[in-house]
Design a protein that fits this description.
single chain, mainly beta, SH3 type barrels, 2 domains, five-stranded antiparallel sheet, two-stranded antiparallel ribbon, about 40% strand, elongated
Length: about 100
């Protein structure tokens, strides 16, 4: 599955408990169609004691979201937008904001 969202992009959450929040994409998972967004969809993981960490603890970390539940925020107009693509004279493709027609890459 080809994702229109890349690592480092700012996205807005469209659905779920964190609806309306914005965050930076930390990692993408194209095979499963999911993205990991900073400070969104935080889960708690209980870890057991090990020799390295003799004290058990609760670790908070972000969980992946479905890519259909996020929308790219255009750096030019600062609004969530759909992503288009265009080719330049050399034939290289770039992502384009559908609202303001500016290049995202």
């Amino acid at each position: 599955m080809k994702l229109k969202v890349k690592k480092g992009d700012t996205v807005r959450i469209l659905a779920g408990k964190d609806k309306g929040k914005q965050g930076k994409v930390l990692q993408t998972f194209p095979k499963s169609g999911r993205v990991l967004v900073e400070d969104v969809n935080i889960i708690q993981r209980h870890t057991r004691p090990t020799q390295e960490n003799p004290q058990s603890r609760i670790v908070k970390k972000p969980a992946p979201l479905a890519v259909s539940n996020v929308m790219l925020v255009c750096p030019g107009c600062n609004l969530p937008t759909r992503v288009g693509s265009s080719r330049d004279a050399q034939g290289t493709a770039s992502r384009v904001c559908r609202r303001c027609e500016r290049s995202i890459d």
